[in-house]
Structure prediction request, 239 residues.
Amino acid sequence: WDWASLFQKDPAQFDLSETPEAKPEGTQRDAFLADLKAERKFYGGDRYEKSRSGDEKAAFCSALHETMDLWYAHQGTTVYMLTQLPEGTHRQNGYDASGWTTYERRSAEQIKKVYLYDAKWKLVLDLGAGMNAEKTRNWPLDPDGFNKLIEHKQFTNGADRDSVKKLFCKMSIAQLGGIKMLDFTGISPPTVGDAQQLGRCLNLCQHLKLCDLSNVGLTDVTCKALFSTFKFNGVLTTL
Prediction:
C-alpha cells in the first residue's frame, strides 16, 4: 500500500465513517480517538479491523514491533522517499506533515552515510525534491527530539502516536548503542539545534570509535553547541 492511501487491509470492509476525520471536531472526535487508543473502537470499523486472518495479523504485529527499524534504519538499505502527493489523491496531509512517514524518514537518516565513495547513489534520497534532493538530508534526531517533532504530525489513527514514539526510542537505543563508526561527510551545514541533537545521539553511542564530520561546515558556534551536550563516557576516540 502507498502512504497516501487510507487502506492497509481489505478496502471492501472499510467504513469511512469510522475514522477521526469523519467525526465532528471537538468532544465527539476526542472521544473517538480515546476509544481507538483503548481499542474499544477500530479505525475503519470492526469488520475492517478483523479482515486480516490470524496469521496475517501476527505477521503484521511482528513486522511493526520487531523488524520495522531494519527496513529504514539499517546502514545497508537504500531508502527512496516519494514525498509528493500523486495527482487525484484525496489525502489532505502531505509527507512532511504525516506521522508515520516522519518516523520512516527520521529512522532512515539517523546512522546512514551521506556520501558514498564508490557507489553513485544516495542511501536516503527525497525523490520529490527535484534538483535539490541531495541537500534535503536531515541531521540525526535522538528520541527526545523525535518526540517533540512527532507531536505536531498527523496520524490517520490517532492512537499510533505513542506506538511510533516507542518504536523510535527502541530503534535509537539499539542502533546507536551498537554502532562503531558514523560518517556525515557532505551533509548540509548544521544549525545550533542540529548540533545539539547530534550530541545527544552521540551520548547514546556506547561503542562508537569514529565520527566523521569532514566538510559539514561546522562553525565555532555549532561546535560549542555540539560539545556542550556531551556526557563523559570515554568511548569516542576520534571526532
The chain has a mean pLDDT of 85. The first strand starts at residue 79 and ends at 81. Helices lie at 27-37, 46-49, 54-73, 99-108, 143-150, 160-178, 192-202, 220-228.
